[in-house]
Design a protein that fits this description.
Shape: elongated
CATH architecture of the largest domain: 3-Layer(aba) Sandwich
Low-confidence stretches: none
CATH class of the largest domain: Alpha Beta
Strand order of the largest sheet: 2-1-3-4-5-6
Structural class: alpha/beta
Number of domains: 2
Radius of gyration: 18 Å
């Protein structure tokens, strides 16, 4: 029996996935979480074989949860099920130790098959997303540029970004200018939009 932990903040979707997986004779959903923190707490307590994580959880995203589980509970395989799959998300997920990455539009049969594949030590990545990730290339942004651009995407002014990122306003302007150049954008707002559309932030 493969023991599964589900994490999705949308109760209806989480319940539907649990019900579908529960129909399989060799799969058992042992825990359900609505947040990343709850998923980590349940994983530590229940020691599931596979964690099926939504990419966008309200506190920690699915990749952050998967990365933590990869370190703390290496026997627990992780997979991301998302409706927001972008090339940058996929690359970050694979770097974090995620073994499966697929959209919420897949059939119950494919989802169950991927759970078994991941549990057995294999990998599964949605073929279309894999092709898009290869053609998109790696993010040109440094980690600090991505952090600053994320804050800029929220509409924060330079002084607030500097305070929140513990940087000087001049350093923030330099990072933003560099990010604008690397994304070939007209300004920081367009740079943030481009970076977000490619999953870089």
């Amino acid at each position: 029996m493969i023991r599964i932990l589900l994490a999705d903040d949308e109760h209806l979707i989480r319940g539907a996935i649990a019900a579908l997986l529960g129909l399989e004779e060799d799969l058992e959903v042992v825990g359900q979480a609505a947040t990343g923190a709850e998923a980590l707490r349940l994983a530590r307590a229940l020691r599931p074989d596979v964690a099926v994580l939504d990419l966008q959880l309200p506190d920690l995203d699915g990749v952050a949860v998967a990365t933590a589980l990869h370190t703390e509970l290496p026997a627990c395989r992780t997979m991301i099920v998302t409706s927001h799959g972008l090339p940058g998300h996929l690359k970050r997920a694979l770097t974090g130790g995620v073994r499966g990455f697929l959209g919420k539009t897949v059939s119950a049969e494919i989802l169950a098959t991927v759970v078994r594949t991941v549990h057995a030590g294999g990998r599964y990545v949605d073929p279309q997303l894999a092709a898009e990730a290869i053609s998109a290339g790696d993010s040109p942004l440094t980690a600090r540029e991505a952090d600053v651009l994320t804050l800029a995407a929220e509409g924060a002014p330079v002084d607030e970004i500097a305070r929140r990122a513990a940087l000087s306003p001049g350093t923030v302007r330099n990072y933003l200018s560099s990010a604008v150049g690397k994304t070939a954008a007209a300004n920081r707002h367009e740079a943030a939009r481009i970076a977000r559309s490619r999953g870089w932030i």
